[in-house]
User: Fold this.
Amino acid sequence: MIKEVRTKRGMTQKELSNKVFGESKAAVHSQFISNIERSLANIPTDRIVDFAKALNVPQKLLLAAILEDRESELRARVKAR
Assistant:
């Protein structure tokens, strides 16, 4: 969901990182944004509000999407066994 909303807003990963983590850390966290979008990292719980504000989406919607993604990943892992 993060990538879809970010691209619909015409925002780069660096711009999102800047809004969430601040300009001084944007370059470092751009890779982290990429990892989140590829499900290689999770949004820290203390940053969910920041991500929701930066993407201009309701917090509940963002949380629901995160939980749905995690559930899909767990089902895929169970199915693979």
Notes: The chain is about 70% helix and 0% strand.
